[in-house]
Amino acid sequence: MITADFHTHTSFSTDSKASPESMIERAIVLGLKTYCITDHMDYFFPEHNDEGFTEFVFNPDQYFETLTALKKKYRGKLDLRIGIELGLRDEPDARDENKKLCEKLVNNYPFDFVIGSTHVIDHFDPYNRECWGGRSAEDIVQMYYDSVLYSVRNYDCFNVYGHLDYIIRYIPEGVTVDLTKFDPIIDTILKELIARGKGIEVNTSRLFRGTKTNPSPDILARYRAFGGTTLTIGSDAHKPEQVAGAFEKACEMLKELGFKEYSVFKNGKESRRKL
Q1: Could you report the per-residue pLDDT of 5-40, keeping only the tens digit for each?
Q2: Residues with Cβ < 8 Å from 142, sequence gap 6 or more?
Q3: Residue 261: which domain range?
Q4: Which of 21, 31, 149, 153 sits a CA distance of 20 to 30 A from 69?
Q5: Nearest partner of 154 among 193, 112, 207, judged by Cα
Q6: For 138, phi and psi rounded to 5 degrees?
Q7: Strands, sheet with 79-87, edge to edge from the N-terminal-most edge strand
Q8: 4-5/34-41 β-pairing
Q9: What H or E segment, with its residue span, contains residue 95?
Q10: CB 6 within 8 Å of CB 265
Q11: In total, how many domains does the chain have?
Q12: Reduced 3-state DSSP string for 155-187
């Protein structure tokens, strides 16, 4: 049984309108014991995308003030953890400054948990369908994994890597890509994460919509075969109705793959719970 959701968003994230209270109340109704809010901090986000978002940043002082008050309010009902999802970058003109900003943020604030994610490649958001035009889909997928590998090797400010095969969410409909071509670089990423003491998350948002987790069960199986054991479970909820989405299915899938535990974090320290 999974009793902790470690990837969720609120109105502190540009792409969510949900109040922190509404998300917490939903978690309580669902019987979760631990709930971690991990709002987006993506510096230098591209200005043009389908939804018209111009930034993915928030005021960390306000964030901690709000969530610390909610920790006290819901004490005894839910163990609220304060996390963040950092956007990691590899573009030569952005990566060094992005790394400085990410490290400064994590060093200056007492986050319980930090997700490192790749949301932008070559200064574009793959969510934006227009950006796929004029490029080979295989080239874009390769660029994504190259970016992830760079970030794993050069950033140390995160606990787990988020939705590791995120890019497959946005391959345009009708476009076929042989994803097995990327197995070698994915395996290298997994081994690098393990060697550096980092974990991965099991993101259930696509499973909740009827497809597969990110990363896929195949990648999770390889992670386990390489000796990986640090797994957090996250719904990537942006609305209350998405909290803990498809957790029962994810639990069953992980057990079938041979996993017996999942991870939670507090004050940056990992502990394990039985599935």
Answers
A1: 999 999 999 899 999 999 999 999 999 999 999 999
A2: 182, 185
A3: 4-274
A4: 31
A5: 193
A6: -60, -40
A7: 4-5, 34-41, 79-87, 113-117, 160-161, 199-203, 231-234
A8: parallel
A9: helix 95-108
A10: yes
A11: 1
A12: CCCCCEECCCCHHHHHCCCCCCCCHHHHHHHHH
Mean pLDDT of 136-157: 97
Sign of CA dihedral 235, 82, 28, 25: negative
Give dist(CA 56, CA 158) in Å, integer.
Answer: 18
Residue 264, helix vs strand vs coil: strand
pLDDT value, residue 138: 95
CATH label of the domain that carries residue 196: 3.20.20.140
Q: Determine if the peptide bond prior to 215 is cis (ω within 30°).
A: yes
pLDDT in tens, 229-252: 999 999 999 999 999 999 999 999
pTM: 0.96
- CB–CB of 86/157 below 8 Å? yes
DSSP 21: H
Residues 8/36, Cβ–Cβ less than 8 Å: yes
Q: What is the pLDDT of residue 47?
A: 63
Contact 126, 144 (CB under 8 A): yes
Rounded distance, CA 86 to CA 16, Å? 16
pLDDT of residue 48: 54
